[in-house]
Amino acid sequence: MTALAGLKVIEIAGLAPAPFAGKVLADFGAEVVRVDRSTSAMNFDVLAKNKRSIALNLKSPAGIEALIRLCEKADVVIEPFRPGVMERLGLGPDVLLKRNPRLIYTRMTGFGQEGHYAKMAGHDINYLAISGVLSTLGKHDEKPAFPINLLADFAGGGLMCALGVLLALQERTKSGKGQVVDAAMIDGVNYLGSFVYNMNKAGALFQTPAGTGQLDGGSHFYDTYKTKDGLFMAVGAIEVEFYKLLLKGLELDEKKDKLPEQMDSSNWPKMKALFTKIFLSKTQAEWVRIFDNTDACVTPVLDYYSMPAPAPAPRLLRTPARTPVSNEGSDMFLEVGGESKKILTEAGFSEEEIRDLVAKNAVAGAGLEKSSL
């Protein structure tokens, strides 16, 4: 038994953030049906594991009505379009919630439903920029150092979207009613940065220009260092007791070597130069052996792509997630419309109704060619 067993989710196909939200729900047991365009031939999708596909023509009134009927039997619908698109299709919240008052209607956008940027196109880097988070990354006298598209698309986007779904489902157990979940990536990534923002306003941390502070690469005890073999070690020895263990591993002595106080920022560049020289004297493997099983907070920077495939998180011990993804290519493909007929049948469509949908070019998929019905 999985945590979300029995939860029925309709995911309208879109770019990565919304499919990731669907993947999170699917990994923990939800029955996720992806609604693809009937003309789509895109079977490759690394976020498709544990999902099923139905191909509908949403430019057809019959296709629209078919999707509405699917949503009548669903707990959640996730839509990835810009503001107004679902309304123009006749699939807005007013329509779907009227047909299914318990539905959790989830909207995944970049800039939200309202505001100056709402109807503009954007990607992860743009959401980071407008939220202000991008200005905190990198060094103040250089251009911002944006990460790969994880922060806004997946953490602030897809994961926050899934969280919104779960919150709305929990509330539904009390009220018996569905609601609209407005998940905007700009809001999500801004919320992720709450700690940084609040610490800055409190005058506690992040007061100095980007790249010069304690936790953003300015200090010598919270940074990465190149090793003799061209690899890297990550150092995060903030606390005094951990810092002492770091110095011990580097064969440094505060008194003997007349080292400055750890938090004396005026000496951080000097200490960083010293650490750089020392780390270059040994290979990554040698440093790993030195700091292994210590609390010095020193670890190797490993190659992400050589690691085992990521598993669903967090781990639930009594109701674990479905089998983690493998490195097999079969996990990365979902045949568009591969289960169209079965999904319609499960939703209560009769054989005659399915034939009618095919005749109207409202649905497509394996075994649904007009001549085969």
From TrEMBL:
Q: Which GO terms describe its molecular function?
A: catalytic activity
Top-rank taxon of the source lineage equals: Eukaryota
Q: Where in the sequence is the signal peptide annotated? A: none
For this protein, the record's Pfam families field holds: CoA_transf_3 (PF02515)
Question: What is the similarity comment for this entry?
Answer: Belongs to the CoA-transferase III family.
Which PANTHER family has this protein been placed in?
ALPHA-METHYLACYL-COA RACEMASE (PTHR48228:SF5), SUCCINYL-COA--D-CITRAMALATE COA-TRANSFERASE (PTHR48228)
Protein's name in the database: Alpha-methylacyl-CoA racemase
